Amino acid sequence: MTITLSPPPPRIRAELVVLDDRFAKIAGDEYVERLYDGGRWLEGPAYSPAWRCLIFSDIPNDRLLRWDEPSGHVSVFRQPSGYINGNTLDRDGRLISCSQGDRQVIRTEYDGTRTVLASHLDGHRLNSPNDVVVKRDGSIWFTDPPYGITSNYEGHAAEQELDGCHVYRIGPDGMLTVVADDFTRPNGLAFSRDESHLYVVDTPAKHIRRFDVDGDKLLGGEVFAPCAAGMFDGIRLDSAGRVWAATHEGVHCYDPDGTLIGKLVLPDVVSNLCFGGPKGNRLFITATTSVWSWLLTANGA
Ligand code: MG
User: Fold this and answer.
1) How far apart are the CA of 139 and the centre of ligand 1, in A?
2) Is the pTM of this model over 0.85?
3) CA of 246 to the centre of ligand 1 (A)
4) CATH code assigned at 277
């Protein structure tokens, strides 16, 4: 039997903007690889170390795709998907997803069945959960802007049932609570490595806010950084506390002190990113129709 590997992915020279010496030390390969280019609007990358694959969302095409790291093949993982947007893995390696179409946060169990973790607050439907992260204690934190229901682009135009766009926490006991209620449209979110801080994007406000995490509560919430190119979407932290953010001109990197230290410019609007690969130093980037990867000297948080 012959095993056929996919041809090497196309690559382009990494267009770096070094604004500070601190960025030059962590920028990695001189090129970025285009792993896939057939989506309509890609989002929600989540890397599984156990399966060595990247799961990502192709939202308007109502599907989850799967890129297989050993072979380079891309296949359809789930369709229909419920117009899933953000994805992450929980501490047990299970896929946690934000379904914009079904207005739920769901978990895919080991046997493939799905469990709805959150769909309503006080009897009102959520807007359209967007992005999600898991804390070490098993709690699940997600954002709920109305992007999935503001038009019929995805066929789900509807009135908002809740009076705002909040950040939520699902406790290990399954209890849903609002942890921040003063956002316009919260979007990407990420914990620092020690989980003492939670960073949350407010997209129309064009900034990232940083909260102190006190158990199941958030304190503070000052502006950490304004966006230098369009608006922010997804964010991730590396192990040194730097914030990597999706913007309209590529990926922006912020020092823990809030200084924009460098950029990776890409040809399309970037929606989201995650760290992965066997060493945790491969940055996967969803950008409009494509998935890119860039090998760094920094590791994910
Ligand atoms: Mg998002």
Assistant:
1) 20
2) yes
3) 9
4) 2.120.10.30
